[in-house]
């Protein structure tokens, strides 16, 4: 049978993938309390699962599909999880990386009229690349993305350690991949392998700083008094205004002692 002119005209369009959306969802989403932009987001998750075979989408990926920012996506995801419309699953992939995926089972349960089960305290774990982009306030370059993957892959740094190094750089106001790499190397040199090791290392460093301060303050009282009286008032005032080093930037001062 020869196809109709309408079918022939739409052949290219009809040959692209289609997805199945339950009519009950389209008909009842507003009554369930799902907002229109959240419905678009749920449909994109549904489409990814049906077409690509996975719902492992980052905030940036989902935002691009929905025309929303990563922050808007995160707020919407948090609300849907809190209201019992969406779940967040976690697993390890074949390469040993920790990944998150969206679970639509809570949505289907709501459509079946089952009571809302309050989810356990759960947050959407961001992928490292998204975290770097949000902290740096800009998209990462291809080389920077490769650097993050190198830290997590060939270099063998666990994801939590890379995230902690990122936080160190933010506290030190050093938005530099070179700085983060030096922090990671310093922790590796001191055999930091767990969060407990890192906390112990930070504590030991704080203690060394305090001991150094005590040693600097052991000069004889008379000499200290004489030095103080010999200074001009402007010098004493300038010295009093010199800021002390913030212990939060411990690694920064260790790597850059002249700062």
Automatic annotation (TrEMBL):
Limits of the DnaB/C C-terminal domain: 130-201
Domain DnaD N-terminal: 22-112
Biased segments, Basic and acidic residues type: 224-249
Region feature Disordered, mapped onto this chain: 210-259
Signal peptide feature range: none
InterPro entries in UniProt: DnaB/C_C, DnaD, DnaD-like_sf, DnaD_N, WH-like_DNA-bd_sf
Domain of life: Bacteria
Full protein name: DnaD domain protein
Source species: Alicyclobacillus dauci
Lineage per the UniProt record: Bacteria, Bacillati, Bacillota, Bacilli, Bacillales
